[in-house]
Design a protein that fits this description.
two-stranded antiparallel ribbon; Porin
Length: 264
């Protein structure tokens, strides 16, 4: 099943309906970026604007495969941006609470200054492909839904040898040449391994509390270059800052995630 179909939303009645598809999970729980994409598609339909510009999600409970509802509510419809609030809910509980702004990305033009460059990566075929391991549960099942290649310097945690630097870089694309649209960029901000896996700390999982994604442009076809880094791990929490660059070398998305760091 394509990513587009796996995040499809039926907006013929309110609340809208969708289905959490099999295989987009981490040890049984649906990936946060995947859930964010479902919610954002519903919000874009309600806004009658094609793409997310900024979306924030607060994660309330794990999502499992099955039906969900989304109830987008227009907060303000402006000339260029429409702001929408929504709850993505399973039959028995809310899963994420969302607030976002939606617009036509093509309508945003202006002066440019970018004080950063795409991450320096070896070619994809010289990077480490992350494939699911059903017996161990890691890498998780969703790695079978994307083509993700890690920088060799950042992949040694897979062998029990973390780099010591909370940094993860790599390439990302969807299988079968499926193009990545701005909703796919929401997935990209949350489908790489947590940076803390390279921090050499006694932490085995990092449940997301909040994730904000900024979409800067519709990506050109081809591989995405991604970089995720962390500077502060303290008080039982960590932040993770993400950059996503398209095949033309243009910054197309940014993200910041707050996650818990319970001890292993």
């Amino acid at each position: 099943m394509s990513f587009e179909k796996a995040t499809a939303v039926d907006s013929r009645q309110h609340p809208y309906t969708a289905e959490i598809a099999e295989g987009w999970d981490i040890v049984g729980n649906a990936n946060g970026g995947y859930l964010l994409a479902i919610g954002a598609r519903a919000m874009a339909k309600a806004a009658a604007r094609p793409y997310p510009i900024s979306v924030t999600a607060h994660y309330l409970a794990p999502g499992r495969p099955g039906p969900v509802t989304i109830d987008p509510q227009i907060i303000k419809a402006g000339k260029r941006l429409t702001t929408v609030r929504a709850t993505l809910q399973s039959p028995d509980k809310p899963l994420i609470e969302l607030l976002g702004s939606f617009a036509d990305l093509a309508s945003f033009t202006g002066p440019a200054r970018v004080d950063a460059n795409p991450p320096d990566l070896p070619p994809p075929d010289q990077c480490v492909r992350s494939v699911p391991n059903p017996e161990l549960g890691f890498p998780p099942a969703m790695m079978g839904r994307v083509d993700l290649r890690l920088h060799p310097d950042d992949a040694n945690f897979l062998k029990g040898k973390p780099s010591g630097d909370p940094l993860i870089r790599g390439w990302l694309r969807l299988p079968d040449n499926e193009p990545i649209d701005p909703f796919g960029l929401l997935l990209a901000t949350d489908c790489f391994p947590p940076t803390i896996f390279n921090a050499n700390l006694p932490v085995a999982w990092t449940p997301t509390v909040e994730l904000t994604a900024h979409i800067r442009a519709v990506p050109e076809p081809g591989w995405l270059r991604c970089r995720f880094s962390t500077r502060f791990i303290s008080g039982g929490m960590m932040e993770e800052d993400g950059e996503v660059w398209d095949s033309s070398g243009r910054l197309v998305a940014q993200s910041r995630q707050l996650a818990l760091t319970p001890q292993a």
